[in-house]
Amino acid sequence: MSFKNFLKRFQVEYLVNVLRAAFTRFPLSVICAACGTVLWLLTIYESKVFSDDMFARLLLFVGNGLVLFTSAKLFAESHALPPARRWGLMAACAAVVAGFAFLPAHFSAANLFFAAAISLSMLFAPYIGRRSTEDSVWYYNYSNGVSFIMSGLSTLILCLGLCAILGSVDYLFELNVPGKLYGDIWIVGFGFFGPVMFMSYLQRQFDFAREECQMMPGIHFIANYLVVPLVLIMTWVLYAYFAKIVYKWELPRGNLAYMVTGFGAAGVAARLAVFPMRDNGTRLLQQFYKYFYYLLLVPVGLLGFGLYTRISQYGVTEERYAIGLSFLWLAGLCAFSLLRPKLAHIKQVPMVLSALFLLATFGPWGAVPVSTNSQVARLESLLTRAEVLNGDKLQKTAAKVSFDDRKEISSILDYIYGDNKEASIAKLTAPFEKEITASNTVHGDNMCENRSFTGCRSEYDLPERVMAAWGMKYVQRWGSEEDEYYTISRPGAYSYQVDALVHVAPYEYYARITPATTGSDWVYATDSENGNAQNAPMGGAAATTAALGVTSRPSLVYTMNKAGLLTVRNAKTAASVSFQLQPLAQKLYSDHLTEVPVARLPELDLTAESGHLRAKVQVLSLSGHVKDGVFAFDYASLALLVSP
């Protein structure tokens, strides 16, 4: 392409012709691109024409519609359908796209599978139900791929150029151009200009002679000396890993399935890309094309074994379901290409994957119902082991639930509530609904819509609240038992007796102390002349001590070790008293308490005396890590009343 022709693309007359050609051939697709662009522009200017839910649904409709209407038109052209049947096909496509956008209550993985299926249809739509040579299918997609790259490059240059011009004008003439105009340029560019340009360049011819199917010279080098060697190196890496697994007789690593899926897809794409060089490429390329599916057998076996291992441990999720489809796709390609090579056709590669993705979008075999049922079954099994579920009876557990089980339960709840699947566990949460609702003190009432494609902030802490209602502590996804932090507190501990008038009799002094034992044992001494702001009488306590005529403060030394032993010692008389906080913390933790109920508040008041030294500790909160079921102190907040 000459420089003159490249610049011609940015002339107004040329752009008008591009728009006319695209609209004449793909009217519904161009309308979808225009509507999608307008919707995104409305978000920049914070327009409230549509609710968040309706905005998401409309955007999904026009996005999927742009792709599916284009594929349908390509199919209609290749089969020379009459106008009536052509518009009937478009109406059916519109109904399908509208169904996926407006019927579901929430966005789900089914929408992603559907989008993937119709996107792949662009690769084979003209060849559905008609004979075609492999050369024709390859060259059709190759030329469209080049057009896609050129359209994207043209759009990028246009947007960068307009932004540079706008920025220069703004700087030179001090016009204070609004920043949103730059966003408008990129949205219009990649939302409308780029797709329309690509549609205008889509091939109108669907059958080609083998002599026409030629690559640009530079691609020969990339295919022969970069792509094929890199794919083969990765193949031998996977073979070496397989040998390691066999030698050590160990389970494959958790992310192996993702790695092999990516490798398999990249390898299949590479084999398709080098199709026209299968007879005249380098010897390495020719051998790669001929034996690739043989080489793929071991990685596919690894993929199946790794997938089986993960599902047996953690059940099915939409991600693992997608990997399972990829496994079926790769295994099917291997089997068909090796057993029936004469019947294999390159159009079957994207066609089969698209069909699998489409099947995953609906029915009881679909990704969402299969994954949901699998995770709910796992949850019921774990709750039975945790003694929350006993047959049909549900109760708050009194058992010591292991960290690993709590982590798995937490993970399942994150999955359930994160994907708007709470209805699937309604029978498990219904008996605790009052407690779950009452514990929602942070986010207020749940104001989420029953039908919403958007997130719901008041639902984000539901897994924690449900776990607490079942008598267990929630565990973060990446948490470990060594890092788990546990806090037990008195109701209102963070504002406890700060501003109120505190009567300390029969004690003389009141202090708030906060022992921290994260690094070493905690030691603190008061100042006999001036006291200390942290440990001095607070609020009403100061008034009380003044009324009693107490004007000097004793020298007290507080210590607390990591075992939870708090000691208060009079530095002058050497008298001391001790409080064992560990048994209290352990008991409260064993009872699964994070906030102590009113009926048990007396347990938080500890007294001790030795000679003339008398002291009382009111526990406000206890925090620490739990390992092997043992509470280890990190921090405590205590109210201390003492008569030295």
Q: Could you walk me through the main structural features you see in this protein, from its secondary elements to its overall organization?
A:
This protein is of the alpha+beta class. It has four domains: 208 residues, no CATH class; 146 residues, no CATH class; 102 residues, no CATH class; 156 residues, no CATH class. It is built from 21 helices and eleven strands. The strands form three sheets. Strands 3, 4, 9, 10 and 11 form a five-stranded antiparallel β-sheet that branches. A four-stranded antiparallel β-sheet has the order 5-6-7-8. A two-stranded antiparallel ribbon has the order 1-2. Helix 3 runs antiparallel to helix 4. The radius of gyration is 35 Å and the shape is elongated. About 5% of the residues have low confidence.
